[in-house]
Amino acid sequence: MNWTNRPVIAATGLYTPPESISNAELVESFNEYVARYNEAHAAAIGMGDIDPLQPSSVEFIEKASGIKARHVIDKASILDPEIMCPRIAERDNDQLSIMAEIGVKAAQQALEAAGRAPADVDAVLCAASNMQRPYPAMAIEIQQALGIDGFGFDMNVACSSATFGIQTAADYVRAGNARSVLVVSPEITSGHLNWRDRDSHFIFGDVATAVLVEDAAIAPVNHWEILGTKLKTVFSNNIRNNFGFLNRAAPETASDPDKLFVQEGRKVFKEVVPMVSALILEEAERVQIDPHSLRRLWLHQANAGMNRLIAHRVLGHEADGDESPTVLDTYANTSSAGSIIAFHKHNSDLAGGDTGLICSFGAGYSVGTVFVRKTD
Ligand code: COA
């Protein structure tokens, strides 16, 4: 084999949980929780000791975020006003873990699309915002379930995990250390979301994606060349989750909002938009692509307004849905999987030679860009 050491995206895969929650269903359950809370605390509220909780609204959610629905692993428990979190049964150690299960489904789709046998894959990276356990690595369980003889490890860069995974996989190919690498992103974000928090209860959804990065020498005829990748991180507390193994002991922490996803949404919006746009424009210059000529942007799916602004700065004009497709309406924010879902669902119609950009951004802060060109 004449290896090229040129990494390409050979194929992608997507697993979408069958259950979905509409904004109307979500708000009905949230507002029932608010009504029950206010009733139970009526005396303290009447005395002015605590503030009453405010109801959520379908109109606000759609206007502020562009989100209309989200897929989840366990709809019933999330919508039960007495529970309001997913209740996913623990499995025995000899059963496949839930994260591995959905990751495997997405990975199998990618392998099938590429016509690749698992035995020919060299490595599995499980790149996601949350791992259901510290070890053994989710990636190794996925590797075992698929029958891959190689190595695997987990990596977490929050919403940028998948693009950081793509660059890591691309670097293995560039260095010749691996020829075929699976980047799997099972994102069960419903587990870290505070479904009782009015400011953010609508944000996230569950999904799994897979990206097969390969040496151009073995990739299927139709693939996407990786023209350049660029990563950036800048520390910020504006998106944070303090859950971890060091705070497991105190029972009161179990319901502490600080141990779930928290964010300063407005600050994130203001600080991340310029950072992302600047990184994209710098990297476009380095890989000698006129950003205005990019045929499509597959942006991180967190907020429709943010994507509008970023796309405008990059393309030089207001982008339409064809230039910057959204999956936010049906999937919500699926953390690192968002830009990959957008790419997976909206790349087959592009022509040979078309260039595009997969870009993620989120907690850290973190930004990852992957410039790609469709083969002729
Ligand atoms: N229903 C109704 N009203 C709500 C509400 C809800 N669920 N949540 C908040 N509001 C109200 C607030 O009380 C506030 O009212 P006020 O102006 O009277 O005080 C108003 O809506 C505006 O709230 P704000 O939080 O400033 O909204 P926003 O327009 O900034 O939208 C986000 C909130 C979170 C959707 C938006 O900031 C965002 O998406 N930011 C980026 C987030 C991001 O990318 N995060 C990365 C995660 S990986």
From TrEMBL:
GO terms for biological process: fatty acid biosynthetic process; secondary metabolite biosynthetic process. Keywords: Acyltransferase, Transferase. InterPro entries: ACP_syn_III_C, ACP_syn_III_N, Thiolase-like. Transmembrane segments: none annotated. GO terms for molecular function: 3-oxoacyl-[acyl-carrier-protein] synthase activity. Gene3D superfamilies: 3.40.47.10. The keyword Acyltransferase applies. Residues 153-232 form the Beta-ketoacyl-[acyl-carrier-protein] synthase III N-terminal domain. Residues 286-373 form the Beta-ketoacyl-[acyl-carrier-protein] synthase III C-terminal domain. The keyword Ribonucleoprotein does not apply. NCBIfam families: PRK07515.1. PANTHER family: 3-OXOACYL-[ACYL-CARRIER-PROTEIN] SYNTHASE 3 (PTHR34069), BETA-KETOACYL-[ACYL-CARRIER-PROTEIN] SYNTHASE III (PTHR34069:SF2). This is Beta-ketoacyl-ACP synthase III.
